[in-house]
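Recap from last week: sequence in, structure out.
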Amino acid sequence: MAQSDNTDVKTMPFERAIEELETIVKRLEDGKVPLEESVAIYERGEVLKRRCEELLRAAEARVEKITLDAAGKPTGTEPLDVK
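Predicted C-alpha cells:
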C-alpha cells in the first residue's frame, strides 16, 4: 500500500478512496499484517468507506432521468427517485 496515511480523506476523490480501501481489504485478508498495523489500517479503511458512501450519495442526488414524450423523444429531465 502506498504510504497515504497523511492524505486527507475528506478531499480524496472517489476513485482514489476506493482504490486505497481495496488495498487495505486485500492486506487484511492476507493475514500477514501485524496486529497493531491491522488495527490502524482497519480504522483508515472505515474512514475511506464513509468517504466513498458520502460521494456515492452525492452522485445519486445529482443523477437525473430523461423524460420522453409519447413519440419517445426527450422532453427534459426530472430528479431520479432514489430510495
